[in-house]
Inverse folding.
């Protein structure tokens, strides 16, 4: 694997191996940006959930993660974009215990609780886009 | 399809010994390592065989997927496999084939003049290039096989079940718990419970970087299955970061007993199984 330090991650997420890679890359990026270990664990867990969702429900997921700044604040932004079937009822999907597969049904709602900013847009048949941002405290 | 000029073929056959000598001379300067690995006697035999097969096959044209090239291809595949196992670089193996050009072309050029045999030279050139690719492809295949074997070796060692004490077993979990590995873990664990009649199974997750809903789901499933066999599961190695993350994520592990350290987990296991260790004076 390359050791090139990247401030922008742009990778396909179509297999469980790539979910692991996504986690590692995001963790590396956050470490470099100065996030605490707790924040790293939280966001990487969220990345794990959202990236895996793309593998399970869509076939052509993609993760882009970048460093963002706002004045003196530094943060990380991750975008999960797929062109899968889309989510019919987002509120229902976010609810605890709801799952179309046999999983625990905590992933999507849980991921939202783990991140500072969480935005989801989805249209049926076209795909889903989830945009999360976390700032260094 | 382009075929080899009969005249050229006759020349190649009659000059086979010269070509062979020139080829070996090039090999000695360019591919020393390969020669060292094969050995001199072996080299003489192999180069002779290769050249005979190669010149015979040439007469049908440059489609190396044809039956006539079968032996040449197999020969190169075997050679490439052997060299890969001996850690020779793919370029050196490919050079074995490519240096045939350096032996054939000077001879042909000395023999003929003009454009008459350009076609034949192009044909030979194309065949040798393709044969060079055969060795590279075989190199990749061999590497893939090695990688797959190593992967399998990793999964096999990834779920060791350790008997710690009478009625107590432990599974140290490391890395990513995907579905296939969890299945393996579940199976090995339940079999060990049956074999050892363990009453407590300790799952140590210190080596797992992240507990997301998938991992948690797997842990709960494992604990439930063990429970059905009358065995309690203790999960150890949940650090402060992971515990906070799990709460936020909404994972409920209250059905499973957990401890921060393996030490605490062991103490609890002794209590559950009603055992005491007596320390010497």
């Amino acid at each position: 694997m390359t050791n090139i330090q990247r401030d922008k991650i742009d990778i396909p997420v179509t297999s469980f191996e790539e979910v692991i890679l996504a986690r590692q890359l995001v963790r590396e990026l956050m470490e470099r940006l100065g996030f605490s270990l707790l924040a790293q664990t939280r966001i990487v867990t969220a990345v794990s959930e959202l990236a895996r969702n793309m593998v399970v429900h869509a076939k052509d997921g993609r993760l882009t993660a970048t460093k963002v700044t706002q004045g003196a604040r530094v943060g990380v932004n991750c975008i999960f974009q797929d062109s899968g079937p889309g989510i019919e009822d987002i509120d229902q999907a976010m609810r605890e215990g709801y799952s179309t597969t046999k999983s625990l049904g905590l992933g999507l709602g849980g991921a939202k609780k783990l991140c500072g900013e969480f935005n989801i847009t989805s249209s049926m048949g076209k795909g889903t886009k989830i945009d999360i941002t976390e700032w260094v405290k | 399809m382009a075929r080899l000029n009969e005249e050229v073929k006759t020349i190649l056959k009659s000059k086979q010994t010269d070509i062979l000598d020139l080829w070996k001379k090039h090999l000695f300067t360019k591919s020393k390592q390969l020669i060292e690995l094969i050995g001199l006697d072996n080299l003489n035999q192999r180069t002779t065989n290769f050249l005979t097969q190669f010149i015979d096959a040439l007469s049908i044209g440059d489609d190396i997927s044809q039956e006539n090239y079968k032996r040449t291809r197999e020969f190169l595949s075997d050679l490439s496999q052997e060299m890969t196992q001996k850690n020779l670089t793919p370029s050196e193996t490919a050079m074995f084939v490519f240096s045939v050009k350096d032996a054939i072309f000077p001879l042909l050029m000395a023999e003929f003049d003009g454009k008459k045999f350009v076609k034949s030279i192009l044909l030979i050139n194309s065949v040798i290039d393709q044969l060079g690719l055969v060795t590279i492809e075989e190199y990749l295949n061999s590497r893939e096989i090695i990688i797959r074997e190593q992967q399998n070796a990793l999964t096999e060692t990834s779920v060791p079940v350790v008997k710690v004490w009478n009625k107590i077993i432990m599974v140290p979990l490391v890395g990513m718990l995907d579905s296939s590995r969890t299945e393996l873990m579940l199976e090995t664990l339940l079999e060990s419970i049956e074999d050892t009649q363990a009453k407590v199974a300790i799952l140590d997750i210190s080596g797992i970087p992240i507990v997301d809903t998938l991992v948690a789901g797997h842990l709960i499933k494992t604990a439930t299955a063990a429970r059905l066999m009358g065995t309690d599961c203790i999960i150890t190695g949940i650090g402060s970061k992971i515990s906070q993350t799990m709460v936020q994520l909404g994972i409920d592990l209250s059905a499973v007993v957990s401890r921060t350290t393996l030490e605490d987990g062991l103490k609890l296991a002794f209590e559950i199984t009603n055992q005491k260790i007596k320390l010497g004076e």
In short: The first helix of chain A runs from residue 16 to 33. Chain A is about 40% helix and 30% strand.
